[in-house]
Amino acid sequence: MNIVLLHPGQMGVTIGQALLRSGHEVRWVAQGRSQQTRQRAHRSGFTETAELIEAFDGADAVVSVCPPSEAQSVMDQVLGCGYQGLYLDANAVAPETAQAMARKLGDRYIDGGIIGPPAQTAGSTRLYLSGSGADAALKWFDDDILGVVTIGSDASAASSLKMCYAAYTKGSSALLLAVRALACSLNVEDALLNEWSLSQAGLETRAKATARGTAAKAWRFSGEMAEIATTFAGAGLPNGFHLAAREIYDRMGPLKDSADADLELVMNAILQTPGTADS
Amino acid sequence: MNIVLLHPGQMGVTIGQALLRSGHEVRWVAQGRSQQTRQRAHRSGFTETAELIEAFDGADAVVSVCPPSEAQSVMDQVLGCGYQGLYLDANAVAPETAQAMARKLGDRYIDGGIIGPPAQTAGSTRLYLSGSGADAALKWFDDDILGVVTIGSDASAASSLKMCYAAYTKGSSALLLAVRALACSLNVEDALLNEWSLSQAGLETRAKATARGTAAKAWRFSGEMAEIATTFAGAGLPNGFHLAAREIYDRMGPLKDSADADLELVMNAILQTPGTADS
After folding, report:
1. How far apart are CA B229 and CA B3, in angstroms?
2. Is the sign of the CA dihedral B143, B148, B152, B156 positive or negative?
3. DSSP state of B46
4. Do residue B239 and residue A278 have CB atoms under 8 angstroms apart?
5. Which of A76, A164, A211, B74 maximizes the CB count within 10 A of its CB?
Protein backbone atom coordinates (compact mmCIF):
# COMPACT_ATOMS: atom_id res chain seq x y z
CA MET A 1 0.00 0.00 0.00
CA ASN A 2 0.89 3.65 -0.39
CA ILE A 3 0.20 5.44 2.90
CA VAL A 4 0.48 9.19 3.45
CA LEU A 5 1.75 10.14 6.92
CA LEU A 6 0.80 13.61 8.13
CA HIS A 7 3.24 14.35 9.74
CA PRO A 8 6.51 12.64 10.71
CA GLY A 9 6.94 14.33 14.10
CA GLN A 10 8.53 12.43 16.98
CA MET A 11 5.44 10.28 17.44
CA GLY A 12 4.36 10.20 13.80
CA VAL A 13 7.69 8.90 12.63
CA THR A 14 7.40 5.77 14.76
CA ILE A 15 3.93 5.06 13.34
CA GLY A 16 5.40 5.51 9.86
CA GLN A 17 8.28 3.18 10.68
CA ALA A 18 5.80 0.52 11.80
CA LEU A 19 4.00 0.88 8.43
CA LEU A 20 7.30 0.69 6.60
CA ARG A 21 8.27 -2.49 8.49
CA SER A 22 4.84 -3.85 7.56
CA GLY A 23 5.81 -3.58 3.89
CA HIS A 24 4.16 -0.34 2.77
CA GLU A 25 5.45 2.78 1.09
CA VAL A 26 5.16 5.73 3.46
CA ARG A 27 4.89 9.18 1.93
CA TRP A 28 5.30 12.47 3.69
CA VAL A 29 4.74 16.06 2.60
CA ALA A 30 7.65 18.45 2.90
CA GLN A 31 5.74 21.70 2.53
CA GLY A 32 5.68 23.68 5.76
CA ARG A 33 7.68 21.10 7.76
CA SER A 34 10.82 21.85 9.75
CA GLN A 35 14.34 20.78 8.92
CA GLN A 36 14.17 18.42 11.90
CA THR A 37 11.10 16.69 10.48
CA ARG A 38 12.76 16.41 7.07
CA GLN A 39 15.81 14.73 8.61
CA ARG A 40 13.63 12.38 10.62
CA ALA A 41 11.60 11.42 7.53
CA HIS A 42 14.69 10.84 5.40
CA ARG A 43 16.44 8.77 8.04
CA SER A 44 13.30 6.65 8.32
CA GLY A 45 13.17 5.94 4.59
CA PHE A 46 9.87 7.70 3.92
CA THR A 47 9.14 8.99 0.42
CA GLU A 48 9.14 12.77 0.12
CA THR A 49 6.45 14.61 -1.79
CA ALA A 50 6.72 18.37 -2.11
CA GLU A 51 3.08 19.36 -1.69
CA LEU A 52 0.00 17.82 -0.16
CA ILE A 53 -1.87 17.26 -3.42
CA GLU A 54 1.03 15.27 -4.93
CA ALA A 55 0.98 12.83 -2.04
CA PHE A 56 -2.51 11.52 -2.80
CA ASP A 57 -1.75 10.29 -6.32
CA GLY A 58 -2.29 6.56 -5.94
CA ALA A 59 -2.47 6.76 -2.16
CA ASP A 60 -4.45 4.07 -0.35
CA ALA A 61 -4.67 5.62 3.08
CA VAL A 62 -3.85 8.72 5.11
CA VAL A 63 -2.62 8.59 8.71
CA SER A 64 -2.80 11.85 10.67
CA VAL A 65 -0.47 12.29 13.67
CA CYS A 66 -0.37 15.99 14.57
CA PRO A 67 -1.09 18.36 17.47
CA PRO A 68 -4.72 17.90 18.58
CA SER A 69 -5.58 21.50 17.81
CA GLU A 70 -4.65 20.89 14.15
CA ALA A 71 -6.40 17.55 13.67
CA GLN A 72 -9.51 18.99 12.03
CA SER A 73 -7.67 21.46 9.81
CA VAL A 74 -5.31 18.73 8.57
CA MET A 75 -8.36 16.65 7.65
CA ASP A 76 -9.99 19.63 5.92
CA GLN A 77 -6.83 20.20 3.87
CA VAL A 78 -6.80 16.56 2.83
CA LEU A 79 -10.45 16.65 1.80
CA GLY A 80 -9.77 19.93 0.00
CA CYS A 81 -7.35 18.04 -2.23
CA GLY A 82 -10.14 15.70 -3.35
CA TYR A 83 -8.76 12.69 -1.50
CA GLN A 84 -11.28 9.82 -1.51
CA GLY A 85 -9.62 7.02 0.50
CA LEU A 86 -9.43 5.81 4.10
CA TYR A 87 -8.39 8.30 6.78
CA LEU A 88 -6.95 7.32 10.16
CA ASP A 89 -6.85 10.13 12.71
CA ALA A 90 -4.54 9.00 15.52
CA ASN A 91 -4.58 12.25 17.45
CA ALA A 92 -5.36 13.05 21.09
CA VAL A 93 -8.76 14.59 20.49
CA ALA A 94 -12.07 14.65 22.32
CA PRO A 95 -14.69 12.16 21.13
CA GLU A 96 -16.69 15.22 20.06
CA THR A 97 -13.82 16.17 17.74
CA ALA A 98 -13.54 12.60 16.42
CA GLN A 99 -17.30 12.51 15.78
CA ALA A 100 -17.11 15.79 13.89
CA MET A 101 -14.45 14.29 11.61
CA ALA A 102 -16.45 11.08 11.27
CA ARG A 103 -19.48 13.07 10.13
CA LYS A 104 -17.44 14.50 7.26
CA LEU A 105 -15.66 11.28 6.30
CA GLY A 106 -18.36 8.67 6.95
CA ASP A 107 -17.12 5.09 6.68
CA ARG A 108 -13.74 6.31 5.48
CA TYR A 109 -12.97 7.64 8.97
CA ILE A 110 -10.96 5.42 11.33
CA ASP A 111 -10.49 6.63 14.87
CA GLY A 112 -7.09 6.14 16.49
CA GLY A 113 -5.44 6.83 19.82
CA ILE A 114 -1.77 6.33 20.65
CA ILE A 115 -0.84 5.39 24.22
CA GLY A 116 2.79 5.29 25.24
CA PRO A 117 5.99 7.03 24.09
CA PRO A 118 7.21 7.05 20.47
CA ALA A 119 7.46 3.31 19.76
CA GLN A 120 11.05 2.13 19.78
CA THR A 121 10.83 -1.02 21.87
CA ALA A 122 8.21 -3.76 21.81
CA GLY A 123 5.44 -3.38 24.38
CA SER A 124 5.93 0.32 25.10
CA THR A 125 3.25 1.73 22.83
CA ARG A 126 -0.13 0.83 21.49
CA LEU A 127 -2.17 2.32 18.64
CA TYR A 128 -5.85 1.79 19.44
CA LEU A 129 -8.30 1.73 16.55
CA SER A 130 -12.07 1.98 16.41
CA GLY A 131 -14.81 2.65 13.89
CA SER A 132 -16.27 0.70 11.02
CA GLY A 133 -12.87 0.60 9.27
CA ALA A 134 -10.85 -0.40 12.32
CA ASP A 135 -10.52 -4.05 11.33
CA ALA A 136 -9.31 -3.04 7.87
CA ALA A 137 -6.75 -0.64 9.34
CA LEU A 138 -5.52 -3.30 11.75
CA LYS A 139 -4.40 -5.29 8.71
CA TRP A 140 -2.10 -2.48 7.60
CA PHE A 141 0.18 -3.34 10.50
CA ASP A 142 2.40 -6.39 10.76
CA ASP A 143 5.01 -5.18 13.22
CA ASP A 144 6.80 -6.45 16.31
CA ILE A 145 7.31 -3.07 17.95
CA LEU A 146 4.11 -1.05 17.74
CA GLY A 147 1.10 -2.78 19.29
CA VAL A 148 -2.12 -2.23 17.35
CA VAL A 149 -5.44 -3.00 19.04
CA THR A 150 -9.02 -2.65 17.79
CA ILE A 151 -11.68 -1.70 20.33
CA GLY A 152 -14.92 -1.86 18.40
CA SER A 153 -16.96 -0.05 15.83
CA ASP A 154 -17.67 3.17 17.76
CA ALA A 155 -16.28 6.00 15.63
CA SER A 156 -14.80 7.77 18.68
CA ALA A 157 -13.89 4.97 21.11
CA ALA A 158 -10.15 5.17 20.44
CA SER A 159 -10.19 8.91 21.08
CA SER A 160 -12.30 8.41 24.21
CA LEU A 161 -9.80 5.88 25.52
CA LYS A 162 -6.87 8.20 24.85
CA MET A 163 -8.67 11.06 26.64
CA CYS A 164 -9.38 8.94 29.72
CA TYR A 165 -5.85 7.58 29.85
CA ALA A 166 -4.10 10.94 29.46
CA ALA A 167 -6.62 12.60 31.79
CA TYR A 168 -5.09 10.71 34.68
CA THR A 169 -1.44 10.51 33.65
CA LYS A 170 -0.96 14.09 32.45
CA GLY A 171 -3.59 15.46 34.84
CA SER A 172 -1.99 13.97 37.94
CA SER A 173 1.47 15.02 36.76
CA ALA A 174 0.32 18.62 36.38
CA LEU A 175 -1.34 18.45 39.81
CA LEU A 176 1.85 17.11 41.37
CA LEU A 177 3.97 19.87 39.86
CA ALA A 178 1.39 22.47 40.90
CA VAL A 179 1.46 21.18 44.49
CA ARG A 180 5.26 21.33 44.58
CA ALA A 181 5.07 24.90 43.27
CA LEU A 182 2.47 25.76 45.91
CA ALA A 183 4.69 24.38 48.68
CA CYS A 184 7.59 26.39 47.27
CA SER A 185 5.48 29.53 47.18
CA LEU A 186 4.25 29.00 50.76
CA ASN A 187 7.72 28.08 52.03
CA VAL A 188 6.75 24.66 53.38
CA GLU A 189 8.74 22.50 50.95
CA ASP A 190 10.95 20.87 53.57
CA ALA A 191 8.01 20.00 55.80
CA LEU A 192 6.05 18.60 52.85
CA LEU A 193 8.95 16.45 51.65
CA ASN A 194 9.46 15.18 55.17
CA GLU A 195 5.80 14.24 55.53
CA TRP A 196 5.83 12.63 52.06
CA SER A 197 8.82 10.54 53.09
CA LEU A 198 6.74 9.24 56.01
CA SER A 199 3.40 8.67 54.36
CA GLN A 200 3.65 9.03 50.56
CA ALA A 201 6.64 6.92 49.61
CA GLY A 202 7.93 7.65 46.13
CA LEU A 203 6.11 10.94 45.62
CA GLU A 204 9.19 13.15 45.96
CA THR A 205 10.99 10.98 43.40
CA ARG A 206 7.97 11.06 41.11
CA ALA A 207 7.80 14.85 41.28
CA LYS A 208 11.46 15.14 40.26
CA ALA A 209 11.09 12.61 37.46
CA THR A 210 7.90 14.29 36.24
CA ALA A 211 9.61 17.68 36.12
CA ARG A 212 12.55 16.30 34.12
CA GLY A 213 10.33 14.18 31.92
CA THR A 214 7.78 16.85 30.98
CA ALA A 215 9.70 20.14 31.01
CA ALA A 216 10.84 20.05 27.39
CA LYS A 217 7.52 18.85 25.95
CA ALA A 218 4.94 20.54 28.20
CA TRP A 219 4.41 23.24 25.56
CA ARG A 220 2.65 20.74 23.36
CA PHE A 221 0.29 19.39 26.04
CA SER A 222 -1.88 22.49 25.96
CA GLY A 223 -4.15 21.38 23.12
CA GLU A 224 -4.51 17.90 24.58
CA MET A 225 -5.56 19.32 27.96
CA ALA A 226 -8.15 21.45 26.18
CA GLU A 227 -9.52 18.36 24.38
CA ILE A 228 -9.70 16.47 27.68
CA ALA A 229 -11.53 19.39 29.31
CA THR A 230 -14.00 19.31 26.40
CA THR A 231 -14.44 15.57 26.95
CA PHE A 232 -15.24 16.00 30.65
CA ALA A 233 -17.70 18.81 29.95
CA GLY A 234 -19.33 16.73 27.21
CA ALA A 235 -19.90 13.95 29.73
CA GLY A 236 -21.38 16.37 32.28
CA LEU A 237 -18.29 16.16 34.48
CA PRO A 238 -16.21 19.07 35.86
CA ASN A 239 -13.60 20.28 33.37
CA GLY A 240 -11.53 22.25 35.90
CA PHE A 241 -8.83 19.61 36.47
CA HIS A 242 -7.62 19.89 32.90
CA LEU A 243 -8.09 23.61 32.40
CA ALA A 244 -5.81 23.97 35.42
CA ALA A 245 -3.42 21.34 34.01
CA ARG A 246 -3.30 23.28 30.76
CA GLU A 247 -2.37 26.42 32.69
CA ILE A 248 0.47 24.58 34.44
CA TYR A 249 1.83 23.16 31.17
CA ASP A 250 1.44 26.51 29.41
CA ARG A 251 3.57 28.14 32.10
CA MET A 252 6.24 25.52 31.40
CA GLY A 253 6.25 26.59 27.75
CA PRO A 254 9.50 28.58 28.00
CA LEU A 255 11.31 25.31 28.82
CA LYS A 256 10.51 23.99 25.32
CA ASP A 257 13.18 21.61 24.06
CA SER A 258 15.48 22.39 26.99
CA ALA A 259 17.65 19.34 27.57
CA ASP A 260 18.49 19.84 31.23
CA ALA A 261 15.45 21.36 32.89
CA ASP A 262 14.98 20.00 36.42
CA LEU A 263 12.45 20.50 39.19
CA GLU A 264 13.90 23.84 40.22
CA LEU A 265 13.62 25.31 36.72
CA VAL A 266 10.10 23.91 36.40
CA MET A 267 9.09 25.49 39.72
CA ASN A 268 10.50 28.82 38.57
CA ALA A 269 8.58 28.59 35.32
CA ILE A 270 5.31 27.71 37.04
CA LEU A 271 5.66 30.42 39.67
CA GLN A 272 7.13 33.18 37.53
CA THR A 273 5.18 32.92 34.30
CA PRO A 274 2.22 35.26 34.44
CA GLY A 275 -0.97 33.27 34.06
CA THR A 276 -4.67 33.76 34.36
CA ALA A 277 -4.66 31.70 37.60
CA ASP A 278 -8.40 31.29 37.49
CA SER A 279 -8.81 28.33 35.20
CA MET B 1 -3.98 21.74 82.24
CA ASN B 2 -7.65 22.17 81.44
CA ILE B 3 -8.10 22.04 77.68
CA VAL B 4 -11.35 22.68 75.82
CA LEU B 5 -11.80 20.52 72.72
CA LEU B 6 -14.14 21.92 70.05
CA HIS B 7 -15.36 19.37 68.98
CA PRO B 8 -14.95 15.63 69.62
CA GLY B 9 -15.72 14.45 66.09
CA GLN B 10 -13.93 11.40 64.68
CA MET B 11 -10.67 13.28 64.30
CA GLY B 12 -11.11 15.61 67.25
CA VAL B 13 -11.64 12.77 69.66
CA THR B 14 -8.22 11.27 68.89
CA ILE B 15 -6.56 14.64 69.52
CA GLY B 16 -8.46 14.85 72.82
CA GLN B 17 -7.38 11.31 73.73
CA ALA B 18 -3.76 12.27 73.12
CA LEU B 19 -4.20 15.24 75.49
CA LEU B 20 -5.86 12.99 78.06
CA ARG B 21 -2.98 10.49 77.85
CA SER B 22 -0.64 13.46 78.30
CA GLY B 23 -2.23 14.09 81.71
CA HIS B 24 -4.69 16.91 81.02
CA GLU B 25 -8.36 17.36 81.66
CA VAL B 26 -10.22 17.54 78.34
CA ARG B 27 -13.52 19.38 78.32
CA TRP B 28 -16.12 19.33 75.61
CA VAL B 29 -19.32 21.29 75.04
CA ALA B 30 -22.53 19.33 74.61
CA GLN B 31 -24.70 22.09 73.20
CA GLY B 32 -25.57 21.49 69.59
CA ARG B 33 -23.61 18.23 69.31
CA SER B 34 -25.02 14.93 68.05
CA GLN B 35 -25.72 11.84 70.12
CA GLN B 36 -22.82 10.15 68.33
CA THR B 37 -20.43 12.87 69.46
CA ARG B 38 -21.74 12.64 73.03
CA GLN B 39 -21.10 8.89 73.09
CA ARG B 40 -17.63 9.36 71.63
CA ALA B 41 -16.78 12.02 74.22
CA HIS B 42 -18.07 9.96 77.13
CA ARG B 43 -16.29 6.81 76.04
CA SER B 44 -13.08 8.83 75.80
CA GLY B 45 -13.39 10.18 79.34
CA PHE B 46 -13.76 13.84 78.41
CA THR B 47 -15.49 16.21 80.84
CA GLU B 48 -18.87 17.42 79.66
CA THR B 49 -19.89 21.04 79.94
CA ALA B 50 -23.35 22.01 78.84
CA GLU B 51 -22.64 25.33 77.16
CA LEU B 52 -19.65 27.00 75.60
CA ILE B 53 -19.25 29.73 78.23
CA GLU B 54 -19.06 27.18 81.08
CA ALA B 55 -16.16 25.41 79.43
CA PHE B 56 -13.80 28.37 79.71
CA ASP B 57 -13.95 28.70 83.49
CA GLY B 58 -10.36 27.91 84.45
CA ALA B 59 -9.48 26.69 80.95
CA ASP B 60 -5.84 26.94 79.87
CA ALA B 61 -6.22 26.29 76.17
CA VAL B 62 -8.74 25.70 73.40
CA VAL B 63 -8.19 23.20 70.60
CA SER B 64 -10.45 23.55 67.56
CA VAL B 65 -11.01 20.51 65.34
CA CYS B 66 -14.04 21.15 63.15
CA PRO B 67 -15.07 21.39 59.48
CA PRO B 68 -12.90 23.99 57.72
CA SER B 69 -15.90 26.10 56.81
CA GLU B 70 -16.69 26.50 60.52
CA ALA B 71 -13.18 27.26 61.79
CA GLN B 72 -13.63 31.03 61.87
CA SER B 73 -17.11 30.99 63.37
CA VAL B 74 -16.01 28.59 66.13
CA MET B 75 -13.20 31.02 66.96
CA ASP B 76 -15.58 33.97 66.92
CA GLN B 77 -17.92 32.16 69.33
CA VAL B 78 -15.00 31.46 71.67
CA LEU B 79 -13.87 35.09 71.61
CA GLY B 80 -17.48 36.14 72.13
CA CYS B 81 -17.38 34.29 75.46
CA GLY B 82 -14.51 36.51 76.60
CA TYR B 83 -11.94 33.69 76.49
CA GLN B 84 -8.40 35.07 76.91
CA GLY B 85 -6.09 32.02 76.63
CA LEU B 86 -4.18 30.12 73.96
CA TYR B 87 -6.08 28.91 70.90
CA LEU B 88 -4.94 26.07 68.65
CA ASP B 89 -6.77 25.84 65.34
CA ALA B 90 -5.99 22.39 63.90
CA ASN B 91 -8.32 22.64 60.92
CA ALA B 92 -7.73 22.17 57.20
CA VAL B 93 -7.86 25.83 56.26
CA ALA B 94 -6.09 28.05 53.74
CA PRO B 95 -3.15 30.07 55.07
CA GLU B 96 -5.30 33.13 54.34
CA THR B 97 -7.91 31.79 56.78
CA ALA B 98 -5.23 31.02 59.39
CA GLN B 99 -3.79 34.51 59.00
CA ALA B 100 -7.24 36.03 59.47
CA MET B 101 -7.60 34.15 62.76
CA ALA B 102 -4.06 35.08 63.78
CA ARG B 103 -4.88 38.76 63.24
CA LYS B 104 -7.71 38.49 65.76
CA LEU B 105 -5.85 36.35 68.31
CA GLY B 106 -2.30 37.68 68.00
CA ASP B 107 0.26 35.64 69.96
CA ARG B 108 -2.52 33.52 71.44
CA TYR B 109 -3.06 31.89 68.03
CA ILE B 110 -1.33 28.59 67.31
CA ASP B 111 -1.66 27.17 63.82
CA GLY B 112 -2.19 23.43 63.46
CA GLY B 113 -2.60 20.90 60.68
CA ILE B 114 -3.43 17.21 61.08
CA ILE B 115 -2.06 14.77 58.52
CA GLY B 116 -3.19 11.16 58.61
CA PRO B 117 -6.31 9.32 59.76
CA PRO B 118 -7.78 9.64 63.28
CA ALA B 119 -4.78 8.59 65.41
CA GLN B 120 -5.21 5.09 66.78
CA THR B 121 -1.82 3.55 66.07
CA ALA B 122 1.64 5.06 66.51
CA GLY B 123 3.10 6.61 63.37
CA SER B 124 -0.14 7.00 61.44
CA THR B 125 -0.89 10.63 62.21
CA ARG B 126 0.93 13.86 62.89
CA LEU B 127 -0.29 17.16 64.30
CA TYR B 128 1.88 19.91 62.84
CA LEU B 129 2.18 23.16 64.79
CA SER B 130 3.47 26.59 63.83
CA GLY B 131 3.34 30.14 65.10
CA SER B 132 4.91 31.95 68.03
CA GLY B 133 3.14 29.62 70.49
CA ALA B 134 3.99 26.38 68.69
CA ASP B 135 6.79 25.39 71.07
CA ALA B 136 4.52 25.96 74.05
CA ALA B 137 1.75 23.88 72.49
CA LEU B 138 4.20 21.08 71.69
CA LYS B 139 4.69 20.67 75.45
CA TRP B 140 0.99 19.93 75.94
CA PHE B 141 1.58 16.58 74.29
CA ASP B 142 3.40 13.61 75.79
CA ASP B 143 1.94 10.75 73.83
CA ASP B 144 3.13 7.62 72.06
CA ILE B 145 0.38 7.52 69.45
CA LEU B 146 -0.14 11.01 68.02
CA GLY B 147 3.01 12.54 66.53
CA VAL B 148 3.33 16.27 67.20
CA VAL B 149 5.81 18.30 65.14
CA THR B 150 6.64 22.03 65.18
CA ILE B 151 7.56 23.67 61.87
CA GLY B 152 8.52 27.20 62.80
CA SER B 153 7.09 30.51 63.86
CA ASP B 154 5.07 31.32 60.74
CA ALA B 155 1.46 31.78 61.89
CA SER B 156 0.11 29.82 58.90
CA ALA B 157 2.82 27.26 58.05
CA ALA B 158 0.95 24.30 59.53
CA SER B 159 -2.15 25.19 57.53
CA SER B 160 -0.02 25.70 54.40
CA LEU B 161 1.51 22.26 54.86
CA LYS B 162 -1.89 20.64 55.33
CA MET B 163 -3.20 22.36 52.17
CA CYS B 164 -0.26 21.17 50.07
CA TYR B 165 -0.47 17.64 51.40
CA ALA B 166 -4.22 17.25 50.92
CA ALA B 167 -4.04 19.04 47.55
CA TYR B 168 -2.25 16.04 46.12
CA THR B 169 -3.84 13.17 48.05
CA LYS B 170 -7.47 14.27 47.87
CA GLY B 171 -6.97 16.05 44.53
CA SER B 172 -5.51 13.02 42.78
CA SER B 173 -8.15 10.76 44.33
CA ALA B 174 -10.94 12.96 42.97
CA LEU B 175 -9.21 13.04 39.58
CA LEU B 176 -8.94 9.26 39.54
CA LEU B 177 -12.62 8.79 40.37
CA ALA B 178 -13.57 11.42 37.78
CA VAL B 179 -11.53 9.59 35.12
CA ARG B 180 -13.20 6.28 35.98
CA ALA B 181 -16.58 8.01 35.71
CA LEU B 182 -15.58 9.51 32.37
CA ALA B 183 -14.56 6.10 31.02
CA CYS B 184 -17.86 4.69 32.26
CA SER B 185 -19.79 7.49 30.58
CA LEU B 186 -17.87 7.03 27.31
CA ASN B 187 -18.17 3.24 27.43
CA VAL B 188 -14.43 2.57 27.27
CA GLU B 189 -13.98 1.12 30.78
CA ASP B 190 -12.77 -2.32 29.65
CA ALA B 191 -10.23 -0.85 27.26
CA LEU B 192 -8.98 1.61 29.89
CA LEU B 193 -8.58 -1.11 32.54
CA ASN B 194 -6.77 -3.29 30.03
CA GLU B 195 -4.35 -0.49 29.13
CA TRP B 196 -3.87 0.35 32.82
CA SER B 197 -2.99 -3.29 33.48
CA LEU B 198 -0.24 -2.99 30.86
CA SER B 199 1.21 0.43 31.67
CA GLN B 200 -0.22 1.76 34.97
CA ALA B 201 0.16 -1.09 37.41
CA GLY B 202 -1.91 -0.67 40.55
CA LEU B 203 -4.17 2.08 39.25
CA GLU B 204 -7.27 -0.09 38.90
CA THR B 205 -6.77 -1.32 42.46
CA ARG B 206 -6.22 2.23 43.68
CA ALA B 207 -9.42 3.42 42.03
CA LYS B 208 -11.42 0.69 43.76
CA ALA B 209 -9.79 1.35 47.12
CA THR B 210 -10.28 5.10 46.73
CA ALA B 211 -13.96 4.65 46.00
CA ARG B 212 -14.49 2.44 49.05
CA GLY B 213 -12.29 4.61 51.25
CA THR B 214 -13.83 7.98 50.40
CA ALA B 215 -17.49 7.25 49.60
CA ALA B 216 -18.81 7.62 53.14
CA LYS B 217 -16.79 10.74 54.01
CA ALA B 218 -16.62 12.61 50.70
CA TRP B 219 -19.46 14.88 51.87
CA ARG B 220 -17.12 16.54 54.32
CA PHE B 221 -14.28 17.17 51.85
CA SER B 222 -16.14 20.01 50.16
CA GLY B 223 -15.00 22.78 52.51
CA GLU B 224 -11.40 21.51 52.46
CA MET B 225 -11.34 21.54 48.65
CA ALA B 226 -12.62 25.14 48.73
CA GLU B 227 -9.84 26.11 51.16
CA ILE B 228 -7.24 24.45 48.91
CA ALA B 229 -8.63 26.29 45.87
CA THR B 230 -8.31 29.54 47.84
CA THR B 231 -4.71 28.62 48.67
CA PHE B 232 -3.81 28.03 45.02
CA ALA B 233 -5.44 31.27 43.92
CA GLY B 234 -3.67 33.15 46.72
CA ALA B 235 -0.33 31.86 45.42
CA GLY B 236 -1.18 32.89 41.84
CA LEU B 237 -1.70 29.28 40.77
CA PRO B 238 -4.73 27.78 38.98
CA ASN B 239 -7.50 26.80 41.39
CA GLY B 240 -9.41 24.60 38.94
CA PHE B 241 -8.05 21.24 40.14
CA HIS B 242 -9.74 21.63 43.51
CA LEU B 243 -12.91 23.32 42.39
CA ALA B 244 -13.36 20.26 40.19
CA ALA B 245 -12.40 17.95 43.07
CA ARG B 246 -15.00 19.67 45.24
CA GLU B 247 -17.61 19.02 42.57
CA ILE B 248 -16.71 15.32 42.46
CA TYR B 249 -16.88 14.98 46.26
CA ASP B 250 -20.11 16.97 46.41
CA ARG B 251 -21.70 14.55 43.97
CA MET B 252 -20.68 11.70 46.28
CA GLY B 253 -22.57 13.40 49.12
CA PRO B 254 -25.57 11.06 48.97
CA LEU B 255 -23.23 8.19 49.97
CA LYS B 256 -22.67 9.85 53.37
CA ASP B 257 -22.00 7.30 56.10
CA SER B 258 -22.86 4.39 53.79
CA ALA B 259 -20.94 1.37 55.02
CA ASP B 260 -20.75 -0.63 51.80
CA ALA B 261 -20.41 1.87 48.95
CA ASP B 262 -18.12 0.50 46.24
CA LEU B 263 -16.79 1.80 42.93
CA GLU B 264 -20.04 1.12 41.11
CA LEU B 265 -22.12 3.14 43.57
CA VAL B 266 -19.55 5.94 43.48
CA MET B 267 -19.65 6.00 39.68
CA ASN B 268 -23.44 6.19 39.77
CA ALA B 269 -23.31 9.06 42.25
CA ILE B 270 -20.76 11.01 40.22
CA LEU B 271 -22.57 10.48 36.93
CA GLN B 272 -26.15 10.83 38.16
CA THR B 273 -25.96 13.71 40.61
CA PRO B 274 -26.78 16.93 38.78
CA GLY B 275 -23.85 19.29 39.05
CA THR B 276 -22.70 22.58 37.60
CA ALA B 277 -20.10 20.70 35.50
CA ASP B 278 -18.18 23.89 34.81
CA SER B 279 -16.02 24.21 37.90
Report:
1. 32
2. negative
3. P
4. yes
5. A164
Q: pLDDT for B99-138, tens place per residue? A: 999 999 999 999 999 999 999 999 999 999 999 999 999 9
Tell me which CATH code domain A2-155 carries: 3.40.50.720
CATH number belonging to domain A162-272: 1.10.1040
* CATH code matching the domain that covers B161-272, chosen among 1.10.10, 3.30.1380, 1.10.1040, 3.40.50: 1.10.1040
Do the beta carbons of residue B221 and residue B170 sit within 8 Å? Answer: yes
pLDDT at A257: 86
Average pLDDT of the residues in B30-43: 95
Q: Which of A128, A168, A248 sits opposite B176 (nearest CB)?
A: A168
As a CATH number, domain B2-154 is 3.40.50.720
Nearest-CA distance B174 → chain A (Å): 10
Distance (Å) from the alpha carbon of A89 to chain B's nearest alpha carbon: 18
Whole-number pLDDT of residue A278: 43
Among A186, A192, A279, the residue with its CB nearest the CB of B240 is A279
Residues of A in contact with B170 (CB under 8 A): none
Q: Cβ contacts (< 8 Å) between B176 and chain A: which residues?
A: 168, 172
HSE-up of B214 (CA within 13 Å, CB side)? 33
- What residue segments make up the domains of chain A, in order of their start? 2-155, 162-272
Report ipTM for this prediction.
0.96
Q: Which pLDDT band, with edges at 50, 70 and 90, does B274 fall under?
A: low
Centre a 10 Å sphere on the Cβ of residue B112 and count the other Cβ atoms it contains.
26
- List the single residue in B with minimal CA-CA distance to A167: B179
**Which residues of chain A neighbour B196 with C-beta distances below 8 Å?**
165
What are the tens digits of pLDDT across the range B150-181? 999 999 999 999 999 999 999 999 999 999 99
Closest CA to A164 of B238, B177, B248: B177
pTM for the model stands at 0.96
